[in-house]
């Protein structure tokens, strides 16, 4: 349990602070998080739809209840400060439950060191939530190797990070792993691709092995940090860097945040 979070259970149409004395083993089935900065967040509609779709696939298809739960969670978010809330669907005592975590945001960063994951423990790689704990174990192993994030491979091809989506540049073209690879549909990656479309920047899907990213500018993107430049790939390819482009796109990404209410 996250000791820094206030945890709420959805009960009878309202969010109720969870009793800290209640210890119930829960299986995480769906989860969605995003950064809230001074009452503003990015791509809320996309996060909501992904959570609703995942919850439906996991057995809870009551759209009205899911929308009411989501709106109640948003209403609890303060108008000031940095927050990283998480909306959850869990299975506890053989029942499906909705749960909300009101969490302060951890320190934010602009760059990242990665290492290649040696295993892939994911059981449901296309869904956001069920594999979070398993991916956290991979990330901790990467940290022991001097990295902050692990890069997952699908049959040797770059597909995802443990907490990020990966994008890279080939000259003036933005590249992404093919959608058929085993990875979550990242809201942040979709947002970056949307920026590219608005700017007329070509986007291509590219199936690559780590060695084929030699010299490329590699970005790790997620809903907490936005766009981060991957500065080092431990025991991997030597990467290129474009600080001006990265800074400009970070600014464009951040400018898309909108008020919660």
What is this structure's SSE topology?
Elements: E1 6-11, E2 14-17, E3 26-33, E4 36-37, E5 40-41, H1 44-57, H2 63-75, E6 82-83, E7 86-92, E8 95-102, E9 111-116, H3 132-144, E10 149-154, E11 157-161, E12 165-170, E13 173-176, H4 187-199, E14 203-205, E15 217-222, E16 226-234, H5 243-254, E17 258-259
Parallel strand pairs: 9-10, 9-16, 13-14
Antiparallel strand pairs: 1-2, 1-8, 3-7, 4-5, 4-6, 5-17, 7-8, 10-11, 12-13, 12-15, 15-16
Helix pairs in contact: 1-2
User: Number of domains in the coordinates?
Assistant: 2
- Low-pLDDT segments: none
By helix and strand content, what is the structural category?
Answer: alpha+beta
CATH fold name of the largest domain, please?
A: D-amino Acid Aminotransferase, Chain A, domain 2
Name of the CATH class of the largest domain: Alpha Beta
Labels describing this entry:
261 residues, alpha+beta, D-amino Acid Aminotransferase, Chain A, domain 1, D-amino Acid Aminotransferase, Chain A, domain 2, 8-stranded mixed sheet, 5-stranded antiparallel sheet
Question: Can you tell me about this structure?
Answer:
It is a single chain. The protein folds into two domains: 6-102, Aminotransferase class 4, branched-chain amino acid transferase, N-terminal domain (D-amino Acid Aminotransferase, Chain A, domain 1, 2-Layer Sandwich); 111-259, D-amino Acid Aminotransferase, Chain A, domain 2 (Alpha-Beta Barrel). It is 25% helix and 33% strand. The chain has helices spanning 44-57, 63-75, 132-144, 187-199, 243-254; strands at 6-11, 14-17, 26-33, 36-37, 40-41, 82-83, 86-92, 95-102, 111-116, 149-154, 157-161, 165-170, 173-176, 203-205, 217-222, 226-234, 258-259. An eight-stranded mixed beta sheet has the order 11-10-9-16-15-12-13-14. A five-stranded antiparallel beta sheet has the order 2-1-8-7-3. Strand 12 (165-170) and strand 13 (173-176) form a beta hairpin. Helix 1 crosses helix 2 (63-75). The model has no long low-confidence stretch (mean pLDDT 96).
């Amino acid at each position: 349990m996250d000791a820094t979070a206030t945890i709420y259970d959805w009960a009878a149409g309202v969010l109720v602070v969870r009793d800290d004395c209640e210890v119930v083993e829960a299986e995480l089935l769906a989860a969605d998080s995003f950064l809230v900065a001074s009452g503003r967040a990015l791509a809320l509609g996309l996060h909501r739809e992904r959570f609703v779709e995942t919850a439906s696939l996991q057995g809870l298809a009551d759209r009205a209840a899911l929308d009411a739960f989501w709106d109640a969670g948003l209403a609890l978010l303060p108008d000031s400060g940095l927050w990283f809330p998480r909306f959850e669907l869990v299975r506890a005592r053989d029942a499906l439950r909705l749960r909300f975590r009101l969490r302060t945001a951890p320190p934010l960063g602009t760059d990242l060191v990665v290492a290649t994951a040696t295993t892939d423990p994911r059981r449901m790689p296309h869904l956001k939530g069920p594999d979070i704990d398993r991916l956290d174990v991979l990330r901790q192993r990467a940290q022991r190797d001097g990295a902050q994030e692990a890069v997952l491979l699908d049959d040797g091809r770059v597909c995802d990070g443990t907490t990020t989506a990966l994008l890279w540049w080939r000259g003036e073209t933005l590249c992404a792993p093919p959608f058929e690879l085993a990875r979550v549909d990242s809201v942040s990656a979709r947002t970056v691709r949307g920026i590219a479309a608005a700017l007329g920047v070509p986007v291509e899907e590219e199936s690559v092995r780590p060695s084929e990213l030699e010299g490329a500018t590699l970005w790790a993107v997620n809903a907490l940090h936005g766009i981060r430049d991957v500065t080092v790939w431990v025991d991997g390819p030597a990467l290129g860097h474009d600080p001006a482009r990265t800074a400009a796109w970070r600014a464009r990404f951040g400018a898309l945040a909108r008020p919660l209410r």
